[in-house]
Amino acid sequence: MAKKESFFINRVKSVGYAFKGAYLLLTTEASIQVQFSIGILVTIAGFYFNISTTEWIIQTLVIAIIMALEGVNTAIEEIADFIHPEQHPKIGLIKDLAAGAVFIFAVAAACVGCIIYLPKLLA
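The line above is the sequence of Diacylglycerol kinase (ATP); the predicted structure tokens follow.
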């Protein structure tokens, strides 16, 4: 019987897989690249406008959530294409629903950005 790896070794491997996934998303997926670029721009804006600690927390969470949702959307699309490579109405619906979830949060993220930055731009 093979010796079971330790909890620590398994966690290290899991983190390695997560880094690999994040790297693949950032280097191969245009939607993530766009969101990452927007995240960089609003981070620079945060330093420029000296936003509050609370605004930093909210902005950081919004950037992380939108990028995570984009990653989940990409995973759903990949699974759907793997399961049924040809065009199929149900697969199309599944992909549209996943993209819709990203869109809903993207609209909310834009609203958060406006709440944080419009008063500073108009002052």
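Note on the example: Helices lie at 7-28, 30-48, 53-83, 89-122. The domain at 10-122 is CATH 1.10.287.3610 (Helix Hairpins).
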